Amino acid sequence: MSSYLDLGGCRKRRRGGEKVFKFKTFGENGCPVEFDGSFRDNVKALVEYGHLEVNLCGNGVFSWSFQLEVHRHPPLHVVLFIVEEQIQASSSSSINLHCKHCQYVGWGHHMMCNKKYHFLLPSKETVAACFNCDETSFDDPNPEKGKFNLVELKGHIMHGVFHSNGFGHLLCVNGMEMGSDQLAGYQIMEFWHRLCTGLQARKVSLNDSSKKRGMELRLLYGVAYGHPWFGRWGYKFGRGCYGINQPIYQKAIEAIQGIPLCLLNHHLSISNNDISVIFSRYQALSDHSMVTLGDLFHFMLELRSRLPKENSIDSCNPATVETNCRWSPKRVEAATRVIVEALKNAEFRWVSRQEVRDAARAYIGDTGLLDFVLKSLGNHIVGNYLVRRCLNPVTKVLEYCLEDISTVFPNSEALIINNSKAKPRCKITKVQLMKDIAYLYKHILKDQKPTLSTGVFSAIPMATRIILDTKFLVKEYTEELSMKGNSNCSNGKTFKLLCTVISRSDEIDEELKKPLPPYECVCLKENATFDELKQEVEKNFREVYWRLRSFVVETIVNLSVKGLDLVMGSVEMGQKLVFIGSNEDQIGMDDGGGSGIVDCLCGAKEDDGERLISCDICEVWQHTRCVRIPNNEEIPHVFLCKQCEEKIVFLSSLP
Q: Which band of pLDDT confidence, cut at 50, 70 and 90, is reported for residue 381?
């Protein structure tokens, strides 16, 4: 098996000597670079280790590639591309320069940044579309017309983008379930999380559209754990669509989690006995009484993470070893216990078959018996432990590991040998478990019957819609820049301040009430003057923001100092300062990317990414869903909001 992104056979990429990095550690500190600067400094340091690509995304756009080894045996590599997109390079096109993702998540007040950095793990299809390996040379200075832009292609395994101020968006994650046959979703998220942490990103948003077997994971995991699947990496409620706020979302989660199973079972068993069977099946596996719907889904998802991929688990007799052999059940049981004890002494790490066998031989002299039991123990439960077995892809040697599953099967009895008197009552496989989860999801959460539309169950459809309408999540990586040690500083600069700026205005008090640009960490030498501080502030903010290309600092809010005064002694280390200045080069662009006023019946006041329609009289935007225009219908050519329609009716009635 070879990597689907092994581009060595493509003559356009025969470069030789390109360094290969480990996928599982890439992004950690020191892999490949020490991340000890600001976000922009860390990105610049990282791309120094990449291979500079030519004409990958058009002329004038810098891009770098990194070969990443997922595992060696069988060989699997992926390629990370980092593309630097400058506003100047995009300004000639007709696209809106303002970031729609910032607008949707509530960051529409942020000023446009000079640069964006795209981080892409392309899929096999996107690589084939972007790199036409049979025609022009990869480094051809005059590439073929019509060549695809890697950033604009869809279907990447991962696509994230950062603004130069450290705010970013995770645009897509396509794991195995979404089409990638090489990387699972959690592996991609771990990789992205390492990148964000290492680069010292500030905040990252995402639009949660993750699914598994047709089930919306933000609903499934919300019921089971109280947070979406991305919550495993710290992503929380960022902004809801249709006017939903965090308290409403939290109440919806609590309402649907707290539905009593006894009442649910009583109402549904009248028309659907299958749900009662599923309830009973998993209640029998649990060591405690499951009271609510949240308890049930939580137990089922936890059980899924523990089950072997192929083998089944007995709900009564969770451990079985085949005894159709020349040894008595008693001797097989004794050998099994010795092997399990040897694995326990290994402290739950993976050990080779030979190591386990040698440790067990101190107590069991019959090597034939040990070989038989080792062969039979793959993915079997013994007491409160699951004995895992797999082939090491590098050494090609069988290895064993012990996993404690007492939290899933706390009632596990002692080892029971298969014979005529010990027959399992029922078995649970991972396939059956997923079918049961999907069945409950469909019949309870999605396709509610009329029996669930009254009483306490009327909360289910409303809570479900609220959870599904909560798509935008945010992870806050660095709330405040570190003030410890020498991080974020270089060249002997050790004195750090947090600085931001505002444009000069006659109404400074009103200007200060507006959202300020995020604070930037400015590093100075210990003998730096305020004139030098102002120069550093100008340099930093000119580098980050498009509108501040010619920003000039004039004064500091609430601080009366002279230009030659020393900074140290006048202000404290890590103090926040606001600088007032003028910006001569006004380019005529407002900071917000909105195209009009949003004032919807649901309470939304800003564009949240859902379909909108504008009134032809007042030009106020509203959600099509809120004005009862189904999503499968086209927007009408003429539309009047309710208020304008009432005014017209009233005026027409006048004499």
A: confident
